[in-house]
Write a structure and sequence with these properties.
- The chain is mostly helical and 112 residues long.
- The chain has a domain of 68 residues.
- 50% of the residues lie in helices and 0% in strands.
- It has six helices and no strands.
- Helix 2 runs antiparallel to helix 3.
- The longest helix is centred in the N-terminal third of the chain and has 17 residues.
């Protein structure tokens, strides 16, 4: 289902060995979303996002050391911001916006 206008969307993906397993997973996720129990990025903090990015992306970059140093300094100097939940920081309406980039922040925090 495509999102239209200001409708909020959640995009999830996974790899499965059978079609039945994929359908069961999709049904489970849909139920969680409808019941309001799907956590998604809701339990992750800005610091979690920085840590995951540093681990997955910065490691392979030429300037990765300096990038990790900046993340560490941010967390030390701005602990209140680093502790914010991603849903607080981004605003709940914008949280589901997906950029489609392989290393976009939302793809790192989705847990999928």
């Amino acid at each position: 289902m495509a999102c239209a206008g200001r409708q909020a969307c959640i995009r999830l993906s996974g790899t499965f060995t059978t079609k039945k397993a994929a359908e069961m997973w999709a049904t489970e996720k849909e139920h969680e979303i409808q019941k309001g129990t799907y956590a998604g990025a809701g339990s992750r903090t800005v610091a979690d996002l920085f840590d995951e990015y540093a681990k997955r992306v910065s490691e392979g970059k030429l300037g990765g050391h300096w990038e990790r140093t900046r993340f560490k300094a941010f967390k030390k100097n701005f602990p209140d911001l680093a502790a914010k939940l991603l849903t607080e920081s981004c605003g709940r309406a914008q949280l589901a916006v997906c950029s489609g980039l392989p290393c976009s922040p939302l793809s790192l925090v989705s847990g999928e």
